[in-house]
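PROTOCOL LOG
Step 1. Enter all chains and additional molecules of the complex.
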Amino acid sequence: EPEVTQTPSHQVTQMGQEVILRCVPISNHLYFYWYRQILGQKVEFLVSFYNNEISEKSEIFDDQFSVERPDGSNFTLKIRSTKLEDSAMYFCASSQDRGGEKLFFGSGTQLSVL
Amino acid sequence: RKEVEQDPGPFNVPEGATVAFNCTYSNSASQSFFWYRQDCRKEPKLLMSVYSSGNEDGRFTAQLNRASQYISLLIRDSKLSDSATYLCVVNPEDSSYKLIFGSGTRLLVRP
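Step 2. Run joint prediction.
Step 3. Record the structure below.
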């Protein structure tokens, strides 16, 4: 079964450093997403990406965050200057259609900001 | 009021039991509804979509009550492998790309 792959599985960084989280969505999917889950809390939407541009973003997704699809396969989330409160599990997801039907999540990147 | 609200549990039930989870959502314009399952420190996985007429998938039955803004999930004949957190998920409006997740209801099935 096709799957969304994320690297790295764990990332430890110092506060103020830039991090890039990487994702390879399912190849024939058109919609790409980043969600995050702080330990013990709910899954939260960050951003959606379609047709090479951001289609929707949440209040969490401020100027410190950016997304990019640099080639036909990778989808990245960059955090420019990490804060302690950015520590969370970051999930990439993709879907063929908009809205949640058949949304596939990657196994996540656990980001720890020290 | 929270956008999607669930009883956090945990629900601790013996194998073979029937268990029901409830969820309420605040946005009456919400169009799509789902139940996801999340194992400890793993990614959410779609369990089933929830349709207005109600739907069943094996031991799992989902119901939607739009008037009360209420969604339910019934699990019959619980298995040990059903132990997980069950997430109620809503697409807030037809034009939206995002999903709103509830905090989840934890289920523990004991032998």
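Step 4. Note key features.
The mean pLDDT of chain B is 93.
The interface with chain A takes residues 31-32, 34, 38, 41-46, 49, 87, 89, 91, 94, 96-104 of chain B (CB under 8 Å).
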